[in-house]
Amino acid sequence: MSKSQAEPPPTGGTIAAPDHAAARRQAYELLIDAQVVDRDVAERAEDLLRQARDARWYDVRALVDYALAFRSLVDNTPPGAATRLHDEFVGWARRAGDPLATALALRARVDAPDRSATDPAGQIDDLVHAYEAAERIRTTVDRAFALHEIAGAFHQLRLWELTTEIYDEVERLSSGLRSPRALIGSFAFNRFYTLACELLHAREAGSMAEVHRRADRVDALRAEPRNPAIPPEWHKGVDDYAAICHVLAEDADADLLVARLDAKPGEAVDEQEVRALLQCVLAWHHMRHGRPAQAEPLILEGGQVLAETADAAFRSFALWLLARVHNRGMDDTGRDAMRRYHRGLLRARDDARAALVTSVRARLQTGRLRAERDRFAHESLTDPLTLLANRRALERRLQAVTPSTTLIMVDIDQFKPVNDGFGHDVGDEVLRRIGRILLDCVRPGDLAARLGGDEFMLVLDAADREVAVRRGYEVRDRIATEAWHELHASLEVAASVGVAWGARDGVTLYREVDEGLYRAKRAGGARVRSAATGDQAPGRGDGRPDPP
Fold this sequence. Notes:
Strand order of the largest sheet: 2-3-1-4-5
Number of domains: 3
Number of strands: 5
């Protein structure tokens, strides 16, 4: 049946199929701009949020809310307003029950301005729960992005071993990806960033074993060809941190750092902080090679900047260098005593940090196993082709229906000719796309299921006649206006829809929705019908007769 033969929707117009994929791309691009100080993202964010709310795109809304939460840090939003923003994000995510939203909301709350000094245990709790939520995300790209952001938060807490372990998982998930650019760029940057912090700490502690343990990773990362998908905003930052890691790991030629200091400023990172770090690492190199006169002005300039930075590894390294400058008048005995005292403090802090890493790693492993168990249980109730609930899950849900439940049954019109005329690969992709459409048409608490073949069912937690019929027309029109020509130039797909609401039990409700679908089919297809109202479903309201 062609789309032109279908009856009109209740409003008398047509419903344009929203472009979910385009909105996702825009949301990921917004994440890039949210990190650039001089770019205004508010208007674009509001437009995307409006689209996401209207279309019930939880993934798009989660990504945009996360970008706004990140932007609040860039803009130095007052603590009270930032905390409200984070708490609202977490509240919405919990109500939605979406794992991507949950993971990103909890991750964002870790950065709330009033938590870093007052609630470290709460920060770790949020990250553990965010990690478990991320392990439940079915979309590979979104899962990789969520894990990447969680790894960054562990970095901020100086749990670098956990950061590296999660980055290894992100690398496996994102291997070969060229989008989203926000993930590709920040991943390339942050792997060097974490390595730089580990090496700064190892050099400060005088632990050559730790330096050597990381040298091979530095060489491997520097040898990788640059992914062309990395946004230009990240290029300088990646190159700066790669140079810093190389010099710290290999005690390499300082000319590499001089060249980076002379490079054109970048956009996507704090340029003043990176420049200060380049100066301090260059100063450290000069001091190691007996050039204190060249080191001192670099330490006094760069060290003062890093002494105020939020990154603990940068700050500690800078204060260590500043102490060496200010204590240069000590005799050898005094300097040796200060060095032993400093390294003793570092060892004590590292012992506590190692114990925390072990504890948190065990909690993450427990969360991963719990997510895997739930994933296996979910798969037993999921149709493998469309990723909707399967008949078993639907039957369980129908056993618990109440008079406040609505069923919408969907059957593809003339589906056999699709398989016969275009091939089963095209037929399978048609079913997959319809699965995505139906998922877009349900809210938290609703269920979208595949009965089998080309039949589907929506179970809505509402029993309002107008809502039921309007949602039935929405499903029909979303299917009719999908870009089927992308699969084949002459392909068109239409669906018949039955609706039923308010029955006392699942058996009655199922019988009524099946009768509604039968009436829609008998009327010629591409129609919405209910058993309760005869041939004409309520809610159309345009006063026009059915097409012949």
